[in-house]
Amino acid sequence: MSSRELDGYRSGQPAQLADVLERVLDKGIVIAGDIQINLLDIELLTVKIRLLIASADKAREMGIDWWEGDAFLSKGNGRGELEQRLRKLEEAAGLPTSPKQEAD
Amino acid sequence: MITPAATLSRNGLGWYLYGIAAADDASAPLGARLAAGAEQEVELVAEGPLVGVASRVSLAEFDEQTLPERLSDATWLEQKIRTHEHVLERVLEDASVVPCRFCTVYRDEVELRRFLSERRETLQAALDRVRGKVEVGVKAFIDRDRFAAGQARQNDEIRQLETRVSTAEGGRAYLERRRLEQLVASALGDFRGEVAERIQTRLLPAAEDGHALPLQAPELSGREEEMVFNGAYLVTADRGGFEAALASLAREIRDDGVDLELTGPWPAYNFVPEELGAA
Question: Which of B63, B108, B137, B275 is the most buried (most CB within 10 A)?
């Protein structure tokens, strides 16, 4: 639970990759001039990356599905890869499966 | 295309620039903090009143020709992006900073210093704007069940339909339920259009500035609920007034099924000039 729950909004979560991406890839000063990378190319590439991650199905096709298996990103709300693997193991072993946590 | 040999630094190392801070902010403690940061060695390149927060990197790694391939390597990309952000967050704990975009790389220290010196005025103006301030993110998500319940409280037609749905049977119940779903969906459509303006109206007066950002799909936001607002605000570093306004809005909007989430503090990515042309 967040330390700010009493104020009625959530905060203090680990930074979501999506929030980092939309800042680091799209914002911040762009310096045209004598640098190694041609920024026009970078602009095109970031557009390409954005298009890829905008559609999860498409992203999975391309192998860009890292947010799904990241325990931090999936916040342990029952959809994380580790939890799925744990449930599979429990089922295979004939154990009662872990209760699904309520999404927060 | 092969990069002309004359432009390559002798040891194949260039400078990755994370951001720019003021030299008088970037005191010894900041240097120590950056040094303790572990994952990447970060140096402060001082030039007049400004310092560039930078790391030596392999030019081959950031070469224009090979970069497209690296950018489609999710592991490489995430690691570099997280490093960029972590370095700037450590700076932000001690100093105001103008963040650079991902992959701002100089071939050598001379070019980096020339940039800091030739663009001094523009960079100082950008620093002045963010001095003593940070960026925070505000995201709003809607819970459909709570939204429907809120509508039932406010809208007589919906409330009466709900009552009829609970008592009707068979085909009639089906039709009434369909009608109820349509009414709630239509109310949600209207609400989507209004909610961003409502949030902006309440939060902008408590901030220096603010921008709406593109909404994130659930696959990206990590939450099942639909995102109905995504915004960035430039606020004073203590955030007191802004958090009070946010708490008051959150309590008010909660009955409509909306949950607010605060992120940050971030370096002021959304409040620095988009582009600095060549000097």
Answer: B137
ipTM over 0.90: no
Q: Which amino acid is at B79?
A: Q
CA A50/CA A44 separation, integer angstroms: 10
Specify the residue for token string 């950031």: B62
With CA atoms as reference, report the closest residue to B103 among B14, B21, B26.
B14
**Going by C-beta distance under 8 Å and a sequence separation of 6 or more, which residues neighbour residue A3?**
A11, A12
| % of chain B beyond a pLDDT of 90 | 52
B263 to chain A, any CB pair closer than 8 A? The answer is yes
- The answer to whether residue B110 neighbours chain A at the CB level (below 8 Å) is no
The pTM for the full model equals 0.77
Q: Give the end-to-end CA distance of chain A in Å, rounded to a whole number.
A: 9
Bond from prior residue into B218 cis (ω within 30 degrees of 0): no
Residue of A nearest to B18 (CA): A28
Tokens of A33: 């001039």
- Mean pLDDT to the nearest integer, B182-197: 92
